[in-house]
Amino acid sequence: MRFFDSEEWRLSSAGGMTGEAYLAESGNNKLFIKRNTSPFLAVLSAEGIVPKLLWTRRMSNGDVLTAQKWTKGRVLRPDEMTAKQVADMLKKIHNSEPLLLMMRRIGKKPVSTKQIYEQLMRQAKGRAETPALRAALHFLGEMAETAESANKTVCHSDVNHNNWLLDTESNSLYLVDWDQAIIADPVMDLAMLLYWYVDKDQWENWLLYYGWEMNAALKLRLIWHMIAMTLRFMFWHQEHAEVRKMILFEKDLLWLNDYAARTF
To answer: For the chain, how many helices (H) and strands (E)?
Structure first.
């Protein structure tokens, strides 16, 4: 494939679940190519949240390709997700006015807990109704209004450690794969990170890195979004016939349901 008149570039898969990411190579030159990526990639690049955007081009078939600087680095290990650098990056994202403005310009509307609950109810239809699923949906419905927050920011909504890229030359940290970004309570991102990577007895300390102090209202929002997140991923793995992973999320759901019942 030709990106420049004088160079022929070889494309190979760069991994990822969508199959839309590629490594382009020409001699010693390397680019990260993404097809039909988030339209606010330029803002993410300008804010230093993703590697530098080099160009955007529309192809003859209508696809839009973006090229970013190929970063010499690696994804974060699960044990590195507790670092203050991660909390600082999430705080930067959640406080970014340019990101929020761009999301609004492309038509994104704030998502409420009620909307999240209603979407999960629709997804739950036709599935086997286990006691754990029934208890989780009941809790989400009962507490949706109480867990709602007026503070809405840009949320990545999939802060899995595989989406964090550490540049090993500059020690810069990036959060990539923004295809699922929404405007919602920033607790959505925090809940996912805390539940997956931080020991429960360290939640309060990690939140101090982010700049928040734990209280009863925040704890409810966190647990609410942890349960909603667990259902979302459980449904996804069920739809993709990944039974083993679905069962793991069901076990998470049992613990969260028990914790919610004892706490609230």
So the answer is: 9, 10
The CATH number for 10-70, chosen from 3.30.210, 3.30.499, 3.30.200, 2.60.40, is 3.30.200
Whole-number Å distance between alpha carbons of 212 and 98: 23
Residues contacting 6, CB < 8 A, separation 6+ = none
Q: Which residue in the block uniquely carries the two structure tokens 């339209």?
A: 39
CA distance linking residue 254 with residue 133, whole number of Å: 9
Q: Does the domain spanning 78-263 belong to CATH 3.90.1200.10?
A: yes
Show Cβ contacts of residue 236 under 8 Å, excluding neighbours closer than 6 positions.
none
Residue 6's pLDDT band, with cuts at 50, 70 and 90, is: very low
Task: Decide if pLDDT at 231 tops 80.
Answer: yes
Catalytic residue chosen out of the listed positions 63, 79, 88, 158: 158
What digits encode the pLDDT tens for the residues 133-160? Answer: 999 999 999 999 999 999 999 999 999 9
Contact present, 188 and 171 (Cβ < 8 Å): no
185 carries an active-site annotation: no
